[in-house]
Amino acid sequence: MKIVVAGATGSLGTQVVEAVRAAGHEPVSISRETGVDLISGVGLTEALRGASAIIDASATSSTSTKASIEFFTTVTRNLLAAERAAGVPHHVAISIIGAAKVNANYYAGKAAQEEILRAEPDGWSLLRTTQFHEFARQLVGHGKLGPFQGVPQMRSQPVAATEVAAELVAIASGDPRGIEPELAGPQEEKMSDLVRRYLAATGQRRPVIELSIPGAWGRGMRDGSLLPKAGTRRGRQTFDEWLATQSR
Ligand SMILES: NC(=O)c1ccc[n+]([C@@H]2O[C@H](COP(=O)([O-])OP(=O)(O)OC[C@H]3O[C@@H](n4cnc5c(N)ncnc54)[C@H](OP(=O)(O)O)[C@@H]3O)[C@@H](O)[C@H]2O)c1
């Protein structure tokens, strides 16, 4: 089975490509690095030819409400149109637990992406998860404040991207089912603690300062809106187990 992975070079996408192979399928990688632009649509129709499913693991690094909505709506519309043209029967998307409720900044883009899919009569599946363990690494890449590391005040129950990737491939291998049961990590953590542990484990010496982000975005991160509800499925790998797999 040919499975297209959009955002194939990202934190999740690289794991999805591996999971597609591990499941005995053929991955087709999409990113600007592979010559396909999900915003302009260049190269998209050709990349989708003969595919049975597409897993959309693309993302913007922008946290502005306008840019995030623009990115996720344009990409989703372009993908759905190209899938129709190429006869791809299954669109698999990933969103974030609580994003539609917070609906601000980056999460406004995820809410808009979800809305587009929910308006489609069929042909799609959507998995919502918590932050990945890799989110701590992503924050380290973006939040340097001079000699300090800025981290938003945030409650999170992070999950292994490898487990999310395997789940997305299992979903893509079956029929479209709309909204899938959500998937969270094994335990709640404070994001500033995770970043501290990540910095220490990777030999980086930088004091971490917690930032109280203003507005609905920051409130959503602080108040537990992004945490799973009781009874949500939980992944197995803890943050510390993941950290032990990261080399310096
Ligand atoms: N990170 C988390 O903790 C987390 C948690 C839950 C859900 N999610 C969701 O999971 C998905 C993946 O997130 P991530 O953190 O893995 O993203 P990421 O690491 O930032 O990767 C983004 C990917 O999108 C590609 N991309 C960006 N713009 C593109 C364009 N115009 N055309 C083609 N490809 C483009 C990038 O490749 P190029 O730059 O080479 O184009 C890259 O492969 C997103 O939908 C995100 O909302 C993330």
TrEMBL record:
Limits of the NAD(P)-binding domain: 7-166
Protein name listed in UniProt: Uncharacterized protein YbjT (DUF2867 family)
SUPFAM superfamilies: NAD(P)-binding Rossmann-fold domains
Domain of life: Bacteria
Pfam families, A to Z: NAD_binding_10
GO molecular function term, any single one: protein-containing complex binding
